[in-house]
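User: Can you help me understand a structure? I only have the sequence.
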Amino acid sequence: MDSLLAMRLYAKAVETQSFSKAAEAFGLAPSSVSRQITQLEQELGVTLLRRTTRKLTVTEAGREYHARAMRILGLMEEASSAAADYGREPKGTLRVNACNHFGEIHIAPLIPEFIAAYPGVEVDLFMTDQWVDMVETDTDVAVRIGEVGDDSLVARRLAPYRRVICATPAYLAQHGRPASPAGLSGHNCLLHVRTPGTVTWRVTVGRKFEEVRVSGNFRSNNMEAIRAAALGGLGIARMPMWVATEDIKQGRLVRLFGGPGPAPAETHIVAVHHKNRHPDRKVRLFIQFLAERFARAQSAF
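Assistant: Let's start by predicting it. Here is the structure, written out as tokens:
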């Protein structure tokens, strides 16, 4: 007996509730299907289906076997598809989502290189700071910051997400440099917020975190606006490392409470794809491409 064929025939018989329809799907005679499933039952030592002249009824053991059989057949199909992908040129439309500022700085500039490597792929890059339902928008890959609280999605870490406290040399010369995170409460802090209210910053000192309540005369939900205000000498800002890195390198901003190396990561930048869909080759290649490019630029994050 071909156990795999018997499993497939059984799954199709349960799905169609008919030996005849299962036989038709596999190009076999109904008697052959019945014989294969009978042999399967004999091998397992249980009754999977109760037959009458009018219908098939799945037993409790049959339901249990069917559930596991479907998982096995699904994994086999996924394995075959994944292996076949390696012999195919990736093609079709890749739908990518990213938040506005991060997408502008770190995703959009990489797209030409990816398309040059895989000219059969077209990329739709949709950027928004709003949460996006990947199923409803038919998104293949979403680049997000933070953990993914959704069991239907799989996330691959691309880079650490670090934030840095900084200000211009001119601001610090005029107002003094805070000696500790607690000293921030006496400074004008530039606040990246979406709603009004008390703001607490989590500040990295060495390998530890301290929390301090801060306030200031400028708020915005746009990080580029916060950066512009900081560069204008208005106050002290807390920004993602990937926003402030170049300004710190060029001396336009001074990093507070940290040494020359990166601070410990509070969370990570991740690439997300659907768990229940086998990712085709262009999805896997794009995520691997991002991981390699981000690994080369770890200091920027």
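Now, to help you interpret it: The chain has a mean pLDDT of 86. DSSP finds ten helices and 14 strands in the chain. Let me know which part you'd like to focus on.
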